[in-house]
Protein: DNA mismatch repair proteins mutS family domain-containing protein
Amino acid sequence: VLRHMVEKVRCRLLFATHYHPLTKEFASHPCVSLQHMACMFKTKAAALPGSSSDTGSKELVFLYKLASGACPESYGMEVAHMAGVPMPVIEAARGASQVMKSWVSKSFESSEGRSKFSTLHEDWLKSLLGISKIRNVSDDDIDALLCLWHEMKSCYK
Structure:
């Protein structure tokens, strides 16, 4: 869908959140410029003189400036806090996020340990070979080949 929006519709702006795989797929596309809204963390000062509540904790500050490249991090937990989501919910989400990151990391490491190619890379390669055997290769098939090629290339930089 995004490829169609970029190449056929010539969409001038698309705002997306939580689509990190798209940043890899379109990072080197000649018609796409990845950008993000800049932000920073600042240290909170005490609310009242002598008060120690929240002193030294970090606060997300939006800079209202467009910066080049994909956003380097996710700030979902901080934004949830700013939106007033209860702390027990945020802490549960933070814990689930850490478990998921750990699971993905361990899963990738164990598949990498068995050979140079991970299972994921083998799947990409099989897809690439399967598509290349098609006699009448359509534009969509060529796009799929290019996506697979870019994904494999980015993993071995």
Remarks:
- Confidence is low (pLDDT under 50) at residues 112-116.
- Strands lie at 35-43, 58-68.
- The longest strand covers residues 58-68.
- The chain has six helices and two strands.
